[in-house]
């Protein structure tokens, strides 16, 4: 039996069992919590260099089956990869083409999958972005409402403000800002499926006079400073490194003098924005977010500043996103039978790995999430922000 497996595996001590296509089993450690069922004989050779990308791709394509809780699968497979794959940090930054047509197709691939599928594991407002846990014990619903509130307070929204929501998704934040803070909202998305449902929910809440949502590329936004405040949540990950300058200049042009711009998004661990090692980033690029590129905090901050905006506050929510993804993953795992009716089998495999894997990645510090608040100062350099942050946390 030992001769049928790469020698490198024989010296490992992991809670992992390999079950081959012929029924033979090989246990790498005591009390295995995960079993990898190898269905394709050609996969055995790949276990000499089991990158996270290769393991994930094999599962998605049905060459492997995984037994055990999805969280334990991610942990054990990472330990396997660490033991056998050298992470020398030599991965090159992703450089993708980001024109309007390519970006629209990438957004459609990810977000137009199935509204019903997303509803199975998101909160009732379908906030597909990092929640905000004020104590750590909140439900997902509570934490997403807290996120909306936290963002609106940071923007110092006032009744009558005109808010631009770039990448409005299913419209949860737009509706919350309109209803709770009395603002007018103009939201844009590139997902037709999101737009259709978002408009239905705006109408159902009677907010048509306050909330307008359109299918629009950020590059086509008006540049006349008509908006009092601008918010972009989970959007700039799709922009691409090469387009960050244009993206930031577009937000600058959209907001009035004295107005605030909030950018909430995932940031890279490495300064040059290269993906995390051992193939995890490659898997996400291939199967989850085509053309997605994560900038480091320093990269996006530099572009925001060069565009003419002054950064006034930065907050990391890395652990908040790990907790959010744990909730999403758990909810999806609890609804696998229903999810299988909404999306193809391969898509479900991708999302199971993606949600659990990202929760693990955020917890490990492979990626981060930052809220960056900036102001477009008046010509004399002044602005109207309070002297302290007290108003953000005081009801």
Automatic annotation (TrEMBL):
Highest taxon, organism lineage: Bacteria
Domain DUF7884 residues, every copy: 13-83
This protein's record includes keyword Methyltransferase: yes
Entry keyword annotation includes Lipid biosynthesis: no
This protein's UniProt keywords: Lipid metabolism, Methyltransferase, S-adenosyl-L-methionine, Transferase
Pfam families: CMAS, DUF7884
Similarity-based family: Belongs to the CFA/CMAS family.
NCBIfam families in UniProt: cyclopro_CfaB (NF040703)
Protein name, per record: C17 cyclopropane fatty acid synthase CfaB
Organism encoding this protein: Pseudomonas hefeiensis
Lineage of the species this protein comes from: Bacteria, Pseudomonadati, Pseudomonadota, Gammaproteobacteria, Pseudomonadales
Name of the gene this protein is made from: cfaB
